[in-house]
Each structure stands twice: as structure tokens, then as C-alpha cells.
Amino acid sequence: MKFSTKPAIYFIMGSQSSTEKGPLEVLETALKGGITHFQLREKGQSALIGSALLNFALQCQKLCRNYSVPFIINDQVELACKIHADGVHIGQDDRAAWQVRKKIGNNKLLGVSVHSIEEARIAIENRADYVGMGPVFETFSKVDAKKPAGIKGIRAVKNEFPDLPIVGIGGITSENAVQVWQAGVWGIAVISAIANATDIGAQIAALQMPYKEEIKK
Ligand code: 3NM
């Protein structure tokens, strides 16, 4: 099945995301810890390009395959097609979602970052499988992040499109994750909470715990 409705712990990382451990070590530990989705997001001044990026992407993909976790690539549609990634995630400034859908076909996941009901409507019309909404809280991982919108924006989109899978992103930690789950998201996406955790397995468990403990009440 292309799309899992199981609550998602969606880990995003680039080759530079972790301050202490090597990225492949971080990824493998996160996979062991139970992440359900992985997105390779290679950005910034020291971003890998060309064959270095290709090699890094292939290494990440191999690890994800070992744990049967979908491997999704941010923005770089050609790379995703070339290595048969499981999905692509794009922002509002990237290529139009319908063009990406046309290029990747129906079997790959397509995620789109949105910030309003209108953008969510367009993403649905363009056959996105899920939308990312953020930043929910203040984030230090995205240089051009918008002002934190809290969970209000998520609730508004959820209200308008109850069946649309929404992933909350931006500044999510084990302390505030429960608020995001309570807004009705399908998943939460994080970079630093996992990439910089001392104990990645415990961090992932803590991100999941609010869902299990509190939402089902
Ligand atoms: N997109 P962290 S915020 C990649 O608002 C990304 O669309 C965002 O990193 C958005 O979990 C963000 O460390 C960074 O805050 C998320």
C-alpha cells in the first residue's frame, strides 16, 4: 500500500542535520527506534551536490529499505525518480504539485508544505497524498521558516478537510507533541528533536507517547 494511515513519526534529515553523531548512524538508530517515514532534505551552504548527494541518498535509501520505511526526497524530483525513491516532498516555492505528480506517477508519495486552507485545497486538487503544516512552533532548523502558527492553522485545515492527512512540523519536541497530536494530525515531523537527541530511541518513544497515552482517552 502506498499510504499508511498509521500515525506517523516522520524524521527529516540532511547530511548536516546532526550536531554530534554521523548522519547515517543517526538514521539507523532512528529506524531502529520506530520512525515510520524518512525524508532526505539536503539544504544549506554545505549541502552535498552531484555524486556526493547521490551516494548519500543511496546509503539512506538502503537503510530505510532494511527497515521497510518509506524513503522520501525533498524537492529534488529528478534524483527521486532516478533512484526510485518512495516519495517526494515539495514546498510552495518549488515546482507546482501537479507537475511533480505527473512526473513521479501515481505510485510515489507526494507531500506538499501548506500554510492555509487555500493552499491545502490546491494540494488536494493536485493529488498530494499528505500536507505538511508549519512551523507549528519556533524552529531553528529552517532559515526561511515563516512565523510560528501554533496549532490553530492545523485545526482550521483539519476542520475543512477532515480526511486529509496532515503532518505538523516545526519546533516539535517530546514536551509539546501532545498538542499537535490533539489537533488531529496524521503525523509529526521533526529534525532536531531526533537528530540532536542524546538517546534517539527514548526520544522517539517520547514523541509517540502522548498519542498512545492521551489521545485515545
Ligand atoms: N519545514 P525542527 S519547519 C523542514 O514550516 C521544515 O514548513 C518547516 O525542524 C515548515 O524539527 C522545518 O528541528 C524545520 O524544528 C523543522
TrEMBL record:
Pathway: Cofactor biosynthesis; thiamine diphosphate biosynthesis; thiamine phosphate from 4-amino-2-methyl-5-diphosphomethylpyrimidine and 4-methyl-5-(2-phosphoethyl)-thiazole: step 1/1. The keyword Transferase applies. Residues 9-194 form the Thiamine phosphate synthase/TenI domain. Binds 1 Mg(2+) ion per subunit. Its EC number is 2.5.1.3. The keyword Methyltransferase does not apply. GO terms for biological process: thiamine biosynthetic process; thiamine diphosphate biosynthetic process. It comes from the Bacteria. One of its GO terms (molecular function) is thiamine-phosphate diphosphorylase activity. 2-[(2R,5Z)-2-carboxy-4-methylthiazol-5(2H)-ylidene]ethyl phosphate binds at T139, F140, S141, G171, I191, S192. Its cofactor is Mg(2+). SUPFAM superfamilies: Thiamin phosphate synthase (SSF51391). It catalyses: 2-(2-carboxy-4-methylthiazol-5-yl)ethyl phosphate + 4-amino-2-methyl-5-(diphosphooxymethyl)pyrimidine + 2 H(+) = thiamine phosphate + CO2 + diphosphate; 4-methyl-5-(2-phosphooxyethyl)-thiazole + 4-amino-2-methyl-5-(diphosphooxymethyl)pyrimidine + H(+) = thiamine phosphate + diphosphate; 2-[(2R,5Z)-2-carboxy-4-methylthiazol-5(2H)-ylidene]ethyl phosphate + 4-amino-2-methyl-5-(diphosphooxymethyl)pyrimidine + 2 H(+) = thiamine phosphate + CO2 + diphosphate. 4-amino-2-methyl-5-(diphosphooxymethyl)pyrimidine binds at Q39, L40, R41, E42, K43, N74, S113, K142. Mg(2+) binds at D75, D94. Keywords: Magnesium, Metal-binding, Thiamine biosynthesis, Transferase. One of its GO terms (cellular component) is cytoplasm. Condenses 4-methyl-5-(beta-hydroxyethyl)thiazole monophosphate (THZ-P) and 2-methyl-4-amino-5-hydroxymethyl pyrimidine pyrophosphate (HMP-PP) to form thiamine monophosphate (TMP). Belongs to the thiamine-phosphate synthase family. This is Thiamine-phosphate synthase. The gene is thiE.
